[in-house]
UniProtKB/TrEMBL annotation:
Domain ABC transporter: 21-255
Family, per entry: Belongs to the ABC transporter superfamily.
GO molecular-function terms, A-Z: ATP binding; ATP hydrolysis activity
Keyword ATP-binding: yes
Keyword tags: ATP-binding, Nucleotide-binding, Transport
Organism placement in taxonomy: Bacteria, Pseudomonadati, Pseudomonadota, Alphaproteobacteria, Acetobacterales
Pfam name, any one: ABC_tran
Protein's name in the database: ABC transporter ATP-binding protein
Species whose genome carries this gene: Rhodovarius crocodyli
């Protein structure tokens, strides 16, 4: 097989000092029938090129809201959200999102056409888009399925297509919102390994949301722990190399997120 059609570092732009993504004291919320609902507040972090930052926290602590703001779906209530040093004001192909839902593909388009779609929108000629799609299809392990339609694929295969489609757009940051949460345990493990393999091939920058602590430690280079609703930054932790240190980190995050449970078992 030929090498990656998108060479490692295709996303890189050579800003040495500017992080890809920077949040400064960001607060987000929703106007509801009963008043203002704060989803998360005072969130600050930055993401360097090629990093894998995991956001973990309890259900409802604002993880999806935060990722949605990075995607440009909603604006911060306070603070600044910068991509390559410029404020995010709207969605764009420089921030591709992969969701948990299996039905995030266009059902009337084949696997290859789904993957080529963002590039077609960006004006890439059909033949070139198709060639890139074929290479990505091989890289996500779907050789032979280029002309298949989404409804004929398993959940894991649909997820592979969604990842390939996001990578095809060469995003500055790949956003993933609990992408593997609906997969069976075995497929989930396999997809985690494959995501890391793709990261080694491409070197993309990743912002990944999960509520599973093991998943965060398995996939991240750094982990940002959010407090329960409304989410605030509780800790930012580097993921160590050794299995022993990783187990200790998992235990530490458990203590941060579930102090009551830890007390019960003490
Ligand atoms: N569209 C919405 N309108 C009003 N409130 C919302 C909306 N989406 C989420 N929320 C609320 O914002 C908070 C954070 O939600 P969310 O970002 O989905 O959390 P998480 O992804 O961590 O589970 C929750 O209290 C949730 O009920
Ligand atoms: Mg969520």
């Amino acid at each position: 097989m030929e090498g990656p059609v998108l060479p490692r570092g295709a996303w890189r732009r050579g800003h040495l000092s500017t992080p890809v993504l920077e949040l400064r004291d960001v607060s987000l919320g929703y106007r509801t029938a009963t008043g203002w609902l704060t989803a998360c507040e005072g969130i600050s972090f930055s993401l360097a090129e090629g990093e894998r930052l995991m956001l973990v926290g309890a259900s409802g602590c604002g993880k999806s809201t935060l990722l949605g703001a990075v995607a440009g779906f909603h604006a911060p209530h306070a603070g600044q959200l910068l991509l390559d040093g410029r404020p995010v004001t709207q969605p764009g192909p420089d921030r591709m999102m992969v969701f948990q839902e299996f039905e995030q593909l266009l059902p009337w388009k084949s696997v290859a056409d789904n993957i080529a779609y963002p590039r077609r929108l960006a004006g890439t000629p059909r033949a070139e888009g198709r060639r890139e799609a074929e290479t990505l299809i091989a890289q996500v392990g779907l050789t032979g399925f280029a002309d298949a339609f989404p409804h004929t694929l398993s959940g894991g295969m649909k997820m592979r297509v969604a990842i390939a489609r996001a990578l095809a757009a060469r995003p500055r940051v790949l956003l993933m919102d609990e992408p593997f949460a609906a997969l069976d345990a075995l497929t989930r493990r396999r997809m985690q390994d494959e995501l890391l393999r793709l990261w080694r091939d491409f070197g993309f920058t990743l912002l990944f949301v999960t509520h599973a602590i093991e998943e965060a430690v398995a996939l991240g280079s750094r982990i940002l722990v959010l407090s329960p609703h409304p989410g605030r930054v509780q800790a930012v932790l580097d993921v160590p190399d050794t299995l022993e240190e990783r187990a200790a980190l998992e235990a530490r995050i458990h203590r941060l997120l579930l102090p009551e449970e830890v007390a019960l078992h003490a």
